[in-house]
User: Which sequence fits this backbone?
């Protein structure tokens, strides 16, 4: 249960603004004009997996050797439908250095409640069972690349 | 120095009393003629608890016992109650202990309960009550479980209003109003292609997505307020213990000092061949995966008329089958006007008929059904073919399968409703009830919320304020909306008599309707005043657009005791519909003309 405590502690800490600063976002948009290498459909299919239950979450997220992005989403949430594929694309660019788990909050309410999800989409970044970063709401591709990139650098 | 003999007598009495205290689970020192003693004994009998009585007036040394009791407990009066060796006190103390749940704890050998409060039902009332109790520092559990409809429809946390009532109903009513607005738009100069269609699935998905977000919101609120939520079906097994069964059939048991029943109601079926297998109810309609097509609505409840109204507003062929009257319990003058407006806008009414069978002619989404009905007045038989049959003939309280018989909660056998006192307490003092299951109370979400919140404050916050069930404003979202507050004309006549009431009324034509030239002399306003009480407004009725918005404000005024004079002294807002109430001069008794002259 130790990791849970750590998770809680991190969660309870004031949420820092992890959005890209304005400057960063605008400069990043300059690069967005450059053609990015297309991500093949097959590689994207394997980018994320849907969490089946609590046990599956422990095994594939908490005990994962890779950092994992957990996308808490709901079928009734419009922004989730936009964010999900964008996030997969950002993760795919890292070519296996980061994993992505999807949690339907209505199917796995206990997990969502445990991780303090109050609105969707909520994305948390985990490494070694600890929550190391998170955001709520939608982000553009550049912001997501930067979010995922930071996760690997750390 | 008193004689030793007397002293030994005192000792004897003392040891005899102590022996009684030590050997009895419940011990009542009483006098056979004392009404308070009878009350306490009745309580224990009601609780089905074995008790030992010592009638002091029927024994030789009763007064000696009474003196010794004074010495031992500081109490001279009877009854003097002991439970499991603990001195409880007299009648008032015992009743209070019962209310607080202390008595039950003492009876259970001092065993503590798992929770201070368990609420059965996660609808508007149950959620409000549990959140408030938790805010007051109590340990609270809420159990909520939706039994699927015969069609298999089920939904999330939040109860009827959020999932299969007010919320989807009003959104679908709005869908229909937009259709009317599209028609009006041409008169205002908007030009667009003729081809206007409605997509049921788009509407259904959008409405249900919003509901999904509300379900989640409620779940998060319960977490934030530290209410323990369990998605299980609750059933009493003992006065302070419930069995919770989840959807996988796993059973758990939980105890609490107090309980609140907030299980709500579900649509009633007709009990005719084909009803459960082939028909739907409002529980199914709002998440129906396909457009219902040609629809027969059975019933004339507000649910029936609202559903029929918006389905017709989407352009569907809709028939309403009515056994007797529209909107039973509402002002009949208003109900009939709302019905006439629906009829004028293409809804067919089949009056004085009751269905006898529903048969399937063809499967499909929707399929084809044949409905047979018989007249309530003659041998005439009605047959019709529909794609969908919606039953809306009333709702039954969900009180039959939650083990109330096991704990002795009184239930009205006719309709499953629960009688409560003015503090929402059932006949079993530690069990309370709120919301739609209450006998003779409003079936409205805001009423349940108010009752639940105030109940929690009284139970755990030392408050005394009770829920006021008088002058509750409400609105029926028929195509032409009907808002009301206070008494119907029928009820006012019955209460005050024809001579003592004055009814002011007027037809009106909303400005927005004038340019498209529709529905003149349909909208109607009426107030009922009590002549014996300064012409105080005791009934408010409005048939027109935005009835909810109009009625809410006048509801507040009625709560403050608004009189006709004050209403006439109020400046209207021009041009609005609500302003009509500030200038009402024609009384119904005068027979004066109230029609609006159109150009």
Assistant:
């Amino acid at each position: 249960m130790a990791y849970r405590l750590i998770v809680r502690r991190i969660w309870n800490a004031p949420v820092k603004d992890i959005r890209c600063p304005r400057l960063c976002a605008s400069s990043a948009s300059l690069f967005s004009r450059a053609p990015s290498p297309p991500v093949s459909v097959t590689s994207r299919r394997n980018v994320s997996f849907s969490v089946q239950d609590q046990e599956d979450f422990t095994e594939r997220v908490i005990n994962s050797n890779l950092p994992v992005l957990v996308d808490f989403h709901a079928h009734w949430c419009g922004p989730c439908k936009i964010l999900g594929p964008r996030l997969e694309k950002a993760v795919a660019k890292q070519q296996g250095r980061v994993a992505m788990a999807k949690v339907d909050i209505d199917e796995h309410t206990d997990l969502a409640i445990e991780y303090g999800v109050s609105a969707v989409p909520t994305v948390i970044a985990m490494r070694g069972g600890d929550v190391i970063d998170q955001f709520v709401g939608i982000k553009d591709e550049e912001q997501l690349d930067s979010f995922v990139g930071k996760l690997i650098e750390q | 120095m008193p004689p030793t003999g007397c002293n030994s007598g005192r000792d004897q009495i003392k040891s005899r009393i102590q022996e009684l205290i030590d050997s009895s689970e419940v011990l009542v020192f009483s006098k056979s003629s004392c009404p308070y003693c009878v009350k306490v004994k009745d309580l224990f009998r009601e609780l089905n608890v074995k008790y030992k009585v010592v009638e002091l007036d029927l024994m030789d040394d009763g007064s000696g016992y009474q003196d010794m009791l004074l010495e031992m407990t500081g109490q001279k009066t009877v009854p003097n109650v002991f439970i499991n060796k603990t001195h409880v006190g007299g009648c008032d103390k015992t009743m209070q202990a019962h209310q607080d749940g202390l008595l039950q704890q003492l009876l259970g050998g001092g065993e503590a309960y798992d929770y201070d409060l368990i609420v059965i039902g996660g609808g508007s009332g149950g959620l409000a009550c549990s959140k408030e109790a938790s805010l007051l520092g109590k340990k609270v559990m809420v159990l909520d479980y939706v039994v699927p409809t015969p069609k298999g429809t089920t939904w999330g946390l939040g109860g009827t209003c959020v999932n299969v009532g007010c919320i989807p109903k009003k959104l679908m009513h709005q869908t229909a109003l937009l259709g009317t607005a599209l028609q009006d738009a041409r008169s205002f100069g908007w030009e667009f292609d003729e081809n206007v269609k409605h997509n049921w699935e788009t509407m259904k998905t959008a409405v249900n997505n919003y509901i999904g977000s509300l379900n989640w919101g409620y779940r998060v609120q319960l977490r934030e307020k530290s209410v323990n939520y369990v998605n299980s079906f609750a059933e009493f097994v003992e006065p302070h213990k419930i069995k919770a069964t989840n959807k996988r059939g796993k059973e758990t048991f939980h105890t609490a000092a107090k309980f609140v029943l907030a299980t709500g109601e579900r649509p009633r079926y007709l009990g005719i061949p084909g009803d459960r297998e082939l028909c739907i109810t409002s529980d199914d309609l709002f998440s129906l995966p396909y457009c219902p097509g040609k629809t027969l609505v059975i019933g004339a409840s507000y649910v029936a008329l609202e559903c029929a109204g918006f389905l017709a507003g989407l352009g569907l062929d809709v028939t309403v089958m009515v056994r007797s009257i529209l909107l039973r319990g509402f002002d009949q003058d208003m109900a009939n006007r709302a019905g006439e407006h629906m009829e004028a806008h293409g809804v067919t009414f089949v009056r004085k008929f009751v269905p006898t069978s529903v048969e399937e002619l063809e499967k499909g989404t929707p399929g084809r059904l044949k409905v047979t009905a018989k007249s309530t007045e003659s041998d005439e038989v009605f047959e019709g073919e529909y794609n969908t049959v919606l039953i809306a003939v009333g709702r039954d309280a969900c009180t039959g399968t939650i083990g109330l018989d096991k704990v002795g909660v009184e239930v009205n056998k006719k309709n499953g409703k629960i009688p409560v006192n003015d503090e929402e307490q059932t006949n079993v003092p530690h069990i309370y009830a709120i919301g739609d299951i209450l006998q003779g109370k409003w079936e409205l979400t805001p009423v349940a919320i108010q009752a639940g919140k105030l109940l929690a404050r009284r139970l755990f916050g030392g408050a005394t304020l009770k829920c006021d069930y008088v002058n509750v404003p409400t609105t029926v979202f028929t195509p032409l909306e009907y808002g009301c507050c206070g008494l119907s004309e029928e009820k006012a006549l019955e209460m005050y008599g024809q001579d003592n009431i004055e009814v002011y009324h007027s037809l009106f034509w909303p400005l927005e309707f004038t340019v498209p030239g529709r529905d003149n002399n349909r909208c109607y306003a009426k107030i009922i005043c009590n002549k014996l009480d300064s012409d105080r407004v005791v009934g408010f009725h409005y048939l027109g657009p935005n009835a909810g918005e109009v009625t809410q404000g006048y509801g507040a005024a009625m709560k403050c005791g608004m009189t006709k004079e004050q209403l006439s002294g109020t400046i209207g807002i021009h041009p609005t519909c609500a302003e009509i109430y500030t200038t009402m001069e024609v009384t119904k008794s005068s027979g004066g003309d109230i029609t609006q002259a159109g150009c």
